[in-house]
Specification:
434 Repressor (Amino-terminal Domain), single chain, binds zinc ion
């Protein structure tokens, strides 16, 4: 990075461009400049003048101040995001989601420069070389004083610890979610195209990364995150006695009770040795015959989890007399139409 003196908009510009799925050529043609010019801006080899900066901001739907300052906000240095994605996801697809998360991270930083948030809880961090992920999950539950048994409204618990959760349609089913710390506030971006049980698993998995992998990556981060998620959502001590004599009907009941997929329950049972490997494959054969390997039933019956934190912040600002335009601007968005973060449900319905 050559972020020397000057405004150094390069990194922010790259992030915003990728988040919108634009190539350098796309952005160049929107601005009526050449692609090499965009390339120079992005590498901080040339600074856009004031007028150009305003045009770039307008085209990208952010405020000129955001473009100028986002790269210097606290915790703005880009670090690799944790991402839960299929092996089949193309790089262009997941890079765009990574850029979206980075952009949200910058909007969240801009917002928290103006608004202070007092979270009831914190997300504790552990050293993955010292702490078994299952112990980390137990400690995290204990620290949050969660009731024993199934986790009701995981989104609410995560938000109560100051994590900004954004759920939106990624336009592809191949990426489930991403997360990253910024200063004191972690951000999670989750794909709306997943059934509730899968969304909850993604949340617990990303929570694991925030708890375990903020400083050290660990030996096997994905396995560690899944071990954490399993213990967090299905504590061994409580669920083990329920995981005997499994059949599709029993698994359906357990799915309703625990809010996790039947496949997750089968895996858990196998981990906890309440079923054998043969029983596991017999269950999966039944699932295949029923078409449940691709689409499980019951998911629609589970209570949807809606993030509320950003809405609460938006409403608090409205109560202080902020207009929709002011609310958007505080977070660095050019207008309420561009503000995908601080939305108030209902207020935008008419625009649809
Ligand atoms: Zn992961």
């Amino acid at each position: 990075m050559t972020a020397a003196a000057g405004t150094a908009v390069g990194e922010v510009l790259i992030t915003l461009r990728l988040a919108r799925g634009y190539t350098q050529e796309d952005l160049a043609s929107l601005l009526g400049v050449s692609q090499p010019t965009i390339n120079r801006y992005e590498h901080d080899e040339r600074e856009p003048d004031e007028e150009m900066l305003e045009r770039i901001a307008e085209v990208l739907g952010v405020t000129p101040e955001f473009l100028r300052h986002a790269g210097r906000l606290r915790g703005a240095t880009a670090v690799d995001a944790h991402m839960r994605r299929r092996a089949s996801a193309k790089a262009t697809v997941w890079r765009r989601q990574e850029a979206r998360l980075n952009e949200y991270r910058m909007h969240v930083s801009a917002l928290f420069e103006q608004v202070s948030l007092h979270a009831e809880q914190i997300i504790a961090t552990f050293d993955p070389f010292d702490t078994d992920p299952r112990d980390a999950a137990r400690l995290a539950r204990m620290q949050w004083r969660m009731p024993v048994g199934p986790v009701n409204n995981l989104t609410g618990w995560v938000e109560a610890a100051g994590c900004v959760v954004i759920v939106e349609d990624f336009g592809t089913p191949r990426v489930d979610g991403l997360s990253q710390w910024i200063g004191d506030h972690p951000v999670m971006l989750l794909n709306a195209r997943q059934p509730v049980d899968r969304l909850r698993w993604t949340l617990a998995h990303e929570l694991a990364h925030l708890c375990l992998h903020s400083e050290f990556v660990g030996d096997a981060p994905e396995q560690e995150a899944n071990a954490f998620a399993a213990e967090f959502l299905m504590p061994a001590e409580v669920i083990r006695p329920q995981l005997r004599n499994l059949d599709p009907g029993r698994l359906a009941d357990l799915k309703r009770q625990w809010g996790v997929s039947m496949q997750a329950l089968v895996e858990r049972a196998h981990q906890l040795k309440t079923i054998t490997a043969e029983q596991r494959s017999a269950l999966y054969k039944k699932f295949s015959r029923l078409g449940w390997r691709t689409r499980e039933p019951i998911s629609d019956e589970l209570r949807a989890e809606q993030p509320e934190l950003t809405t609460v912040i938006a409403e608090a600002l409205r109560d202080k007399g902020f207009s929709a335009e002011d609310v958007a601007r505080v977070a660095g968005y050019a207008s309420p139409q561009h503000n995908t973060m601080l939305t108030i449900p209902g207020k935008h319905l008419r625009a649809v």
